[in-house]
Amino acid sequence: MVRLVCFSYAGAGTTVYHGWADLLPPGVEVVLVRLPGRESRIREPPFTSMTAIVQALAPLLARHVEGPLAFFGHSMGALVAFETARELRRNHGRQPAHLLVSGRHAPHLQHADPPIHALPQEQFIREMVQRYNGFPRAILAEPELLQLYLPSLRGDFAVLESYTHVREAPLDCPISTLGGVEDARARPEELEAWRQHTAAAFSRQMFPGGHFYLNEKGGAREALLRGLSEQLIPFLVP
User: Fold this and answer.
1) Where is 25: in which H helix or E strand?
2) Could you count the other beta carbons within 10 Å of the beta carbon of residue 104?
3) pTM for this one?
4) Phi and psi at residue 161, in whole multiples of 5°?
5) What digits encode the pLDDT tens for the residues 145-171?
6) Active-site choice (8, 40, 49, 75)
7) Sign of CA dihedral 83, 85, 90, 92
8) C-alpha to C-alpha distance for 150 and 192, rounded to whole angstroms
9) How far apart, in whole angstroms, are the C-alpha atoms of residue 235 and residue 27?
10) d(Cα 90, Cα 78) in Å, to the nearest integer?
11) 75 noted as active-site residue
12) Sign of the dihedral through C-alpha 14, 157, 134, 73
């Protein structure tokens, strides 16, 4: 058995990955990471720094999740997965067996976007929607839902905008990068740059769609899950 630990993108909860367990091979257990400020943890204050996130997650994974781990993260979740893997190595003597990162440029690369997490609400929403085409319009149309959603989203942007990459030795686990061919925020060369963060195998795979290609039911989503299955099958062979 291998446990696939899934990290969501900014503002999102675990519902992003609902249904995945039914579409992955038997023997793959999907473990969903639910951060404070969303879903059943909606009343908890969200994290606002990467250090706080990984120092909370790594001990839980080290203590309570046995057997081989694979990490999958999309966008912000890719960065959280990467830094959690490094925290596990630094302080818990453990690394994931495979790191799969999606829709996120390599951590040592910086986009020159001005910070937005502290902007007034209307300006914050406008800037966010412009950057990430595919933001759920249903949330924007429901004021009460939007007010529930905004604190975690602002917190996640604070995490991203305060993040500073610190150089360490490459991870020992393979890294696979995945992205949408129309995603201007994770271009092929920016995904390729993840190569320097592993001392093991590296691969890159592109799918139809933009930044939120993994939410597009049909070709892209199914192709992604087939690709993940192929990456995880080696851990299921006795």
Assistant:
1) none
2) 29
3) 0.94
4) -80, -15
5) 888 889 999 999 999 999 999 999 999
6) 75
7) positive
8) 32
9) 9
10) 19
11) yes
12) negative
